[in-house]
Specification:
Length: 460
């Protein structure tokens, strides 16, 4: 509608715009597909070098299989082929580790820098940037909107304590940061461009955002107040909490004030389970058994209760925002898995129905002969029910083992933990598999009952 209103009756310009827009969409889709396939190739190559690292470690060429990633591709392949310049990979890797440790201690280089002569003899300090100093910075505006408020500099999304309305400041973001975006009123990112992850997600969620702000994570600190325009890309620092504070060592202040162990606020980060209806109940209304269950479970509320017990005259107030967001996402995942499970069960019923129907049609002469010899419909039906039950038991057992193996692989590769084996699931899986098999056998049993031995044998 906006395009039609702007271009109006300019048919040629509108057609040109639509042609360019369609090609841009196709090109962006092809770009994303190419990046996905490239990532898959990287994954396969990584598996190859992980296996090479394991084999080199087995022959004592590497101290750890993962050390293979401190070597160049040709260094690994030349060592295998016998054409390597050096055969002491351990010392080479030790040198590389020292260099990497030195890189981690250095400040990141600026986005733009000049070199003269030997590259590594140049200075890459961030102080060369012209964007340092002052109360104003400029970046690339990615999503329009004017925002003012306190900033929160986040280096690790797993330990971030973001309050509703904070302005999120980060060096860069990836998909793991998406949990923090709904709480942020704006985003300021040190690196990136119009097509980076933070810019795309901010536009989708309508969060005012500026990227490519040189040194913003060093320029701003937690509690600073800023205002910025997501369209122009200009950020202005208007003040911070440190202007009203005096920073001294806590132990020294406790000693000189004669209040050892005293503090006003203590922030605790704990790995807890998402709260459910049981966790939200008032502990005073619980029975002793329910209270013991709640007390020993890693809920936010139970952890806060135990902190109050240990510290005495304090008030522990849980910050529920992150926990509530995790609970919402887990609930949606559970609903999605429930829908997928129902679809899988329906597919299994249809598969059993098709297989048993084909089997009954192929064995019609055998069924007719059994009936001609005096077998009742119930007897013949019991035979097929027994076959379906055996198939259900076999399928349920294999499904349980396959699901357990898949869960273990996913849990260890993604979360680094093992899944607890619950034997009670095996009988439930067997009963469910048998129920699916029997449900898919009901229609073929009607074909068995309706089989006329005289007509079938006459056809033979």
């Amino acid at each position: 509608e906006c395009v039609r209103h702007t271009l109006g009756s300019q048919t040629l310009r509108r057609w040109t715009f639509e042609w360019v827009l369609g090609n841009a969409r196709d090109t962006i889709r092809n770009r994303e597909n190419l990046r996905l396939e490239r990532t898959r190739v990287f994954g396969r190559v990584r598996r190859i070098f992980v296996e090479l690292g394991k084999r080199l470690s087995n022959i004592d060429a590497l101290a750890d299989p993962r050390d293979v990633f401190y070597l160049h591709t040709r260094e690994v392949l030349d060592f295998v082929e016998g054409t390597a310049v050096t055969t002491d990979l351990r010392k080479l890797i030790s040198l590389r580790k020292e260099e990497f440790a030195e890189y981690e201690r250095q400040d990141p280089p600026p986005d733009r820098f000049e070199t003269r002569g030997v590259v590594y003899r140049n200075c890459f300090d961030a102080t060369l940037e012209t964007n340092d100093g002052g109360d104003t910075r400029t970046g690339i505006g990615c999503c329009p909107g004017q925002v003012s408020g306190a900033v929160r500099v986040v280096t690790d999304p797993r330990t971030a304590m973001l309050q509703q309305g904070d302005i999120l400041v980060a060096e860069c973001t990836d998909p793991s940061w998406i949990m923090l975006f709904p709480f942020a009123s704006g985003l300021l990112v040190e690196r990136g461009n119009l097509l980076s992850h933070s810019a795309i997600m901010a536009r989708e969620m309508g969060i005012p955002t500026i990227v490519s702000i040189s040194g913003v994570t060093r320029w701003l600190s937690n509690g600073d107040t800023v205002e910025f325009d997501g369209a122009s890309g200009i950020v202005r620092r208007t003040g911070g909490d440190e202007e009203r504070q005096v920073l001294v060592p806590l132990a020294w202040l406790q000693e000189v004030s004669g209040r050892p162990g005293a503090f006003r606020r203590l922030q605790v980060s704990a790995l807890v389970n998402p709260e459910d209806e049981f966790a939200r109940r008032d502990p005073r209304s619980m029975t002793p058994a329910e209270f013991d269950r709640w007390y020993c479970s890693p809920y936010v509320s139970s952890v806060a209760h135990q902190i109050q017990e240990v510290l005495g005259d304090v008030v522990a107030t849980p910050v529920h925002r992150v926990a509530q967001a995790e609970t919402t996402i887990l609930a949606r995942v559970e609903r999605l898995l429930a829908v997928v499970s129902i679809a899988a069960l329906l597919g299994a019923v249809l598969a059993v129905l098709s297989t048993m129907t084909t089997t009954v049609l192929e064995r019609r002469p055998e069924i007719a002969l059994m009936k001609a010899l005096g077998a009742a419909n119930a007897t013949v039906g019991t035979l097929f029910v027994a076959e379906a039950t055996l198939l259900g038991l076999l399928g349920g057992g294999l499904g349980y083992l396959g699901g357990l193996l898949g869960a273990q692989l996913i849990s260890q590769s993604v979360f680094g933990a093992e899944v607890e084996i619950k034997p009670v699931l095996l009988p439930a899986m067997l009963v469910l598999a048998c129920a699916v098999a029997l449900l898919g056998t009901l229609a073929p049993l009607r074909v068995v009952q309706q089989t006329d031995p005289a007509l079938v044998l006459k056809e033979r």
